[in-house]
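Tutorial, part two.
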Amino acid sequence: MKTKATIIILIAFISFAFKSDKPAYRIFSVDGKNVKYERMLKKLQKADVVLFGELHNNPISHWLQIELTKSLYDVKKEQLVLGAEMFETDNQLILDEYLSGLISENKFETEARIWPNYKTDYKPLVSFAKENNLQFVAANVPRRYASLVFKNGFEGLEKLSNEAKNFIPELPIKYNPELECYKSMMNMGGGGMSAHKTSNFPKAQAIKDATMAGSILKYWKKGQLFLHYNGAYHSNNYESMVWYLKQANPNLKVMTISTVEQDELKTLSEESKGVADFIICVHSSMTKTH
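Running the prediction step on this input gives:
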């Protein structure tokens, strides 16, 4: 039987061990309450669409993306569909050819306009889809068309050929300039960048949101779970992609994840509360992938 002194020592040791621990991240709910991974998983598996908002160079974002993908696959199996901002709609064919084994990995990586950090951050997701015969959707607008919108507004898209219009949402593009995600873009940056901003600047962001939402809706079927990887800005505060998804299908159950960085992880900052259903809070000293 343990003596009172022994119990006190054990409590002190456990307390010290907890205080000296250095967690790399913590997960919080929308209202800032600490949440375990398993609880988040239980909630997410009931959604139609999950938007995983990452910080592009944050390794915890990328590690949790592949871990969550595996966990959701264990539950949904072939009813899990993957998609990503990092692949553009006109590369769907080559992505499909690679996933089905028609072309080599080298051919795919050479021709698909992959991001510079693809091999470290996104290749594990594509490889998982290939190994498990999952659909992987190239969701984002071709960057040349985002540039076109930046120069000429949505009207510039009207001049595209019918073939080119297959890679963008149906015209005309819905747009709400009063959404904070677009209003705030006019105040972002500084110096020479600000001088070049026009009302088309947020529209170039909106065409990405609209296209990714449209891609999700094109491939999602009732009973499936569509897990989409994107920069957090594209889904934060239930705007951007979420707005476009809800405009098209108000009954769609969309859940969001965001990633933030803080100097301490005990509590979630007030400014980060409410940005998503689940917020992955990573220590700001975490190393970057690029």
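The longest helix spans residues 200-219. In part three we will examine how such features are distributed along the chain.
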